[in-house]
Amino acid sequence: MPWSRRHLITLEELSLAEIEQIHSTASAFKKILQRSVKKVPALRGKTIVNLFLEPSTRTRLAFDMAAKRLSADVISFDAATSSTTKGETLRDTAENIQALQADMIVIRHAASGSPLYLSRLLDIPVINAGDGAHEHPTQGLLDTFTMKEHLGSLHGKKVVILGDVLFSRVARSNIHALTKHGAAVTLCGPSTLVPHRFTDFGVTVSHDLKSALDGAEVVMLLRIQHERQTSSHFPSLGEYTSMFGLNKTRASWLHPKAIIMHPGPINRGVEIDSDLADGEHSVILEQVTNGIAVRMAVLYLCSGGQPENVAPTE
Amino acid sequence: MPALWITHARIIDPAAKRDAAGDLFVRDGLLVDSLSAADRKRAKKIDGRGLVACPGLVDIHVHFREPGQTHKETIATGSRAAAAGGFTTVVCMPNTAPVADNAGTIQFIKDAAARAAVVRVLPTGCITVGQKGEQLAPTGSLKRAGIVAITDDGHCVQNNELMRRAVEYAKMFDLPVMDHCQDDALTHDAAMNEGVMSTRLGLRGWPHAAEDIIVARNVILSEYTGGHIHLQHISSKFSVGVIRRAKARGVRITAEATPHHIALTDDALATYDTNFKMNPPLRTEADRQEILAGLRDGTLDCIATDHAPHTTDEKDREFDYAPFGILGLETALPVCLDVLVRQNKFKLPYVIDLMTRKPAQILKLPAGTLAPGAAADLTLFDPDEKWRYDAKAGFSKSSNSPWHGQTLTGRVKATVVAGRVVFADGKITA
C-alpha cells in the first residue's frame, strides 16, 4: 500500500498499517544513522520550516537533525524573536512561510487544533510537533517504535502511562498508537490528572500504583508540571512523589524485563528517581535517538517518498 | 401610513389560542378587527396563502455591540438581521464599550435605535459598575432611562452577597435580573464542554457544574428574596432539573434556551471550528435531550438566541484564542422549526409561543400578541420553504454562524413592526 498522506496531524486518524509503514521506514533510516556518513539525499533542494511557537528542546533538535540527515534545508523559527510577538496571526505567519516557498511546515503550538487549522489553510504538508494537550504524533510514533524494538509485538502487552495524563499530548498520542497495536494500556496517577473519562479511549484507569505497575512491561512517565500545584490538581510535588513517584521499590513491581520511558524533560526526584532514569531498565536516551529516525520517516513520507524507496545501501 | 391587509394566512396567536386560516388587518400601526371598505381599497395587501402569520418574534438576548464594537455589529445591522429573522423586538445585552451601566449610555442606545433600528431594540443595564462585580450600578436611574432588566451578562456576579442585594434592590423597581450562570473559578481558560470530546481534542474542559452551581445559587437567592431572576441560555441537564424543582415550589425564576443548544452537541467541535465556540459551550446529547424536555414541560420558558457577532478576523484563528459566540437571529426560526417541530413533534403554536408571548412575558413587554388594539408587530413565514443560508450574504455585519452554507427549512417572508413592513421577500424595506 503506497503512503498517501501529506500531513501528519494526529495518530488517532492513522491506521495500524500506516503506523507500521512509518515504523518500517524509520527502521531503514535508523540503519543509515548507524553508518559513518549519516546523510541521504532524499529531500535535497527542499526547505522545511520548523515553526515552534512554544518552547521545545528535544523535539525541535530532533526535527532539525532529521531534516538535515535527509539533506533538506532547515529554517527554524523562534516565537520569541518573530513577528508573532508583534501580534501577527498564525494564518499570516504561515501564509508568509508558504510564500517564501517552504516545502513543508513543522509546527509546535500551545493551542490544540492549530496544526489541523494550518493544514486546511496551506497547500504544503503540515507536521504536528505537538499541539496543546491534544497530540504529539511523532512522540507517540517514536515511543511505540522503541517499545517494539524491546518487546517485539505489543499485542496484549501491559503498558502503564503514569503522571499528568490530563494535560499530556504525549499520553494521547501514545494511547491511540498503543490501542491500535492491541496493547493493554493502563493510565495511572492522581484522580485529578487521570480522570475516569479516559476509559472511553479503551484503556484502564487506575489510581493504585501497585496494581497498575504489577507485571507491566513498559512504564512511561510523564513530566509533572509545577504549575499544576497552584491550579489545585494535587497538594504538592512532595505528596505527588510520595504517592506516584517511581523509585526502586516500586520499580520492582514491574515485569523483570520492563523498560522505563520518559518523553523528557525529566524532573529528577519528582516523577522518577535518578538511579532509575539512568539505570539499566531506562530507554530514555534511546527514545531520543529513535526520535530522529522516526521523524526522518515522517518528513520523507509526507513529502511524497515511498517506504520501499529508502536507500538501504551507501 | 396605508392600512395593511394580510389575506388567507394561517394565523397563529398563542396568547389567544388561535390557530386558523384567516385575514389580519392593520390600521395606524395597530391590529384591528376589520377594515372599512374605503381602507380596504387603499390597503397594502399581502397574500398570506401558504404562510403562517404570527406575532412578531421576540428575542430577549442579543448583542448589538453598539456603542464601541461597531466593527462586529451595529444597532442598524443587528436590527436588520433581526427583521430578516422575523424578530420585531430584541433585548440588547449591556456588554458594550463602554458598558451600559449608566443612564447616558442607555440614552445613547435608545437614540441610536430610534435613528437606525428597523425593529424594536430595548436596552438592559448592568447589575454592577463596569460589570466588575464589585458595586451595584445605579439601577434606579437605569430604569428611569428605559431599561427592561439588569444583567452583567457574560460577567456573572460571583459574589453571592452582592447578587443577593442586586436582586433585592431590583425587586423594588420590578426589574428582572437576568443572569449568565457561570462560576468563573471552574471555567478558567476553558474552551469547550468538559467531557469525552474535550479529553479527545485536548481542549480545556468547562464542566456543567460551573453553570449548575450558579443556577442553584440563583434559585436560592430568588426564593430567599422573592426577586425575579431570569436564567440565561441554560445548557446543562442538571440545571434543568434544579429549575424544574424550584418552579414546582413556586420560586420566581424563568429560563431560556438557545437554538444552538437544542440543535447541536459538542461532537460538532471535532474539527476545531470556531463557529461552534460559544459560552456556555455546546454540551452532550443527554444535556440536549433534557433541554428539549425542559422546553416541552415549561421548565424552560422561552427561546433566546444569544446573537453574538464577531468578525471573521477574530474568529479565524486558533480555537483557544477565538472569542466565544455565534450569530442567531437569522437562523433561529428555521432551526427551531426543524429541531422542535419536525424532529421532536412540538406543536407549531407552542414553538411560536416560546418565541413570542413567553419571552415577552418574562420582561413584561407589550409584545407577542395579535389581539385587536395591540401594536401590529407581525411575522409571516413559509414553514416549508427550503433555502441555503449564506452567512456572508446575511444582514448581520458578521458571519460567525455554525449554519453557514446549510440548507434550512422555513423562511421568513415578511416582518411588520408597528404596521410597517420592514422586511419582505429577502429585502429590508424600512
Overview of this protein structure:
By secondary structure, chain A is of the alpha/beta class. Chain A has 2 domains: 16-135 and 291-309, Aspartate/ornithine carbamoyltransferase (Rossmann fold); 137-287, Rossmann fold (3-Layer(aba) Sandwich), CATH 3.40.50. Helix content of chain A is 38%, strand content 14%. Chain A has 12 helices and 9 strands. In chain A, strand 3, helix 4 and strand 4 form a beta-alpha-beta unit. The radius of gyration of chain A is 19 Å and the shape is globular. Chain B is α/β, with parallel strands linked by helices and 430 residues long. Chain B has 14 helices and 19 strands. In chain B, the strands form 4 sheets. In chain B, strands 1, 2, 3, 4, 5, 16, 17, 18 and 19 form a 9-stranded mixed sheet that branches. In chain B, strand 2 (18-27) and strand 3 form a beta hairpin. The longest helix of chain B has 17 residues, at 209-225. The two termini of chain B are 12 Å apart.
